[in-house]
């Protein structure tokens, strides 16, 4: 997305707020988070890994949740969030802004470390880094990187508003060797907090009207649809700190439990692991344990030269991050098998010696799936 799109949106929102008083920051925040939400919901392919919003793990969370808190620390609501997490026995991640670190907040940082949470980088001043020069981006990442370095090994970075370009992503990933961390669920607390729990449509149109005054219900609806994942909060808001215990209760009541970003069984791709998946070569079913409730089989369909991991399917297949799949028949229409979709990220199947790209019809079986075709990787 271009810089112009974001600044134009910010200007439009600023005008919309003009009657109630508008700050550039408020408008920019609303525009940027709305755009991030579009990106998240469209779930559009991020073949180059340049998104600051989309996470490589997008499903298969097994009802596990990682809570993340951005924009702190401060000396009031951050400690209250820490109190809640301690009482609940939950470890979370705090994406801090370096310019908030001073003599009065330093003890709060120490508490984050001492209580077993992850301290992570959210840049120095919370600028929209997709609109800054690369030297500014470098400086903004570096200043907070050095603060964290003194306390914990820095590992995770989150772009303010999730706003990234391929160039800024490369600074974070290649120069600082940090993991770019988006989210799966936006609590919208940045929208609810300023009006004490009411999120107006003018600020965040994505929230359904029935949830405009119920941040907990809005958060839970998204948690259910994703099956867990990374949830975005901001510990600098008193409203968030006050609402947190109730939201944690709701999550537990619906069978969700808590983990942290470095849990490779829930977020393998985020952490650079590539567990077995559809299309990978295999010697037996043990090589095709996908996790997240989807375990594959090692199969050698007729005409294939190399066994590979697949799943029997009717209409639908599970996706994992950028490795999207499609249900086709490899036996002339008797049954369905999940195969990889051809993508830029797998060189249109060239990344696999045992596959070739073909356009195939979906195997529908007895499912409600609609007829469609896709370019997929089939055995050569
Ligand atoms: Zn932020």
Main sheet summary: 6 strands, parallel
Which class of secondary structure composition applies to the elements? alpha/beta
CATH architecture classification of the largest domain: Alpha-Beta Barrel
Specify the helix fraction band. Answer: 25-40%
As residue ranges, the low-confidence spans are: 1-21
Q: Would you state the CATH class of the largest domain? A: Alpha Beta
CATH fold-level name of the largest domain: TIM Barrel
What is the ordering of alpha helices and beta strands?
HHEHEHEHEHEEHHEHEEEEEEE
Would you kindly provide a written description of the structure presented here, covering whatever features stand out?
30% of the residues lie in helices and 15% in strands. It has 380 residues and is α/β, with parallel strands linked by helices. It folds into two domains: 46-259, Alpha-Beta Barrel (TIM Barrel); 285-379, no CATH class. Strands 1, 2, 3, 6, 7 and 8 form a six-stranded parallel sheet that branches. Helix 8 (215-226) packs across helix 9. The chain starts with a helix and ends with a strand. Residues 70-71, 122, 126, 160 line the site of zinc ion.
Short descriptors:
380 residues; alpha/beta; TIM Barrel; 2 domains; six-stranded parallel β-sheet; 30% helix; 15% strand; globular; disordered N terminus; binds zinc ion
SSE topology sketch:
Layout: H1 3-17, H2 24-42, E1 64-70, H3 77-88, E2 93-96, H4 106-114, E3 118-121, H5 134-149, E4 156-157, H6 166-175, E5 179-180, E6 185-186, H7 189-192, H8 215-226, E7 229-234, H9 238-253, E8 257-259, E9 297-299, E10 308-310, E11 325-328, E12 337-340, E13 355-361, E14 373-379
Parallel strand pairs: 1-2, 1-7, 1-8, 2-3, 4-5, 6-7
Antiparallel strand pairs: 9-10, 11-12, 13-14
Helix pairs in contact: 1-2, 3-9, 5-6, 8-9
The structure holds zinc ion.
């Amino acid at each position: 997305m271009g810089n112009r799109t974001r600044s134009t949106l910010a200007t439009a929102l600023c005008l919309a707020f003009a009657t109630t008083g508008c700050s550039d920051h408020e408008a920019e925040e609303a525009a940027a988070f709305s755009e991030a939400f579009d990106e998240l919901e469209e779930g559009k392919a991020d073949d180059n890994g340049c998104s600051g919003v989309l996470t490589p793990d997008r499903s298969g969370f097994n009802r596990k949740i990682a809570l993340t808190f951005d924009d702190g620390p401060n000396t009031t609501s951050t400690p209250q969030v820490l109190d809640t997490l301690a009482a609940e026995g939950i470890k979370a991640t705090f994406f801090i802004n370096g310019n908030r670190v001073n003599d009065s907040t330093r003890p709060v940082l120490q508490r984050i470390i001492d209580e077993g949470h992850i301290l992570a980088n959210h840049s120095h001043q919370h600028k929209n880094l997709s609109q800054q020069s690369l030297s500014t981006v470098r400086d903004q990442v570096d200043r907070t990187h050095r603060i964290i370095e003194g306390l914990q090994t820095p590992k995770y970075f989150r772009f303010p508003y999730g706003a990234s370009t391929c160039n800024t992503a490369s600074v974070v990933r290649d120069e600082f060797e940090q993991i770019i961390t988006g989210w799966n669920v936006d609590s919208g607390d940045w929208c609810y907090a300023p009006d004490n729990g009411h999120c107006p449509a003018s600020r965040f149109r994505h929230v359904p009207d029935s949830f405009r005054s119920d941040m907990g219900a809005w958060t839970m609806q998204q948690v259910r649809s994703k099956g867990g994942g990374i949830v975005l909060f901001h510990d600098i808001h008193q409203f968030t700190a006050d609402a947190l215990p109730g939201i944690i209760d709701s999550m537990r009541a619906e069978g969700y439990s808590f983990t942290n970003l470095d849990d490779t069984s829930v977020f393998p791709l985020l952490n650079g692991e590539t567990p077995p998946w559809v299309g990978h070569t295999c010697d037996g079913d043990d090589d095709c344990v996908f996790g997240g409730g989807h375990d594959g089989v090692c199969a050698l369909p007729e005409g294939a030269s190399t066994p590979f991991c697949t799943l029997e399917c009717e209409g639908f297949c599970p996706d994992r991050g950028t490795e999207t799949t499609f249900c086709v028949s490899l036996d002339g229409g008797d049954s369905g098998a999940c195969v990889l979709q051809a993508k830029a990220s797998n060189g249109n199947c060239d990344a696999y010696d045992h596959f070739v790209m073909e356009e195939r019809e979906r195997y529908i079986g007895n499912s409600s799936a609609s007829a469609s075709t896709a370019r997929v990787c089939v055995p050569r």
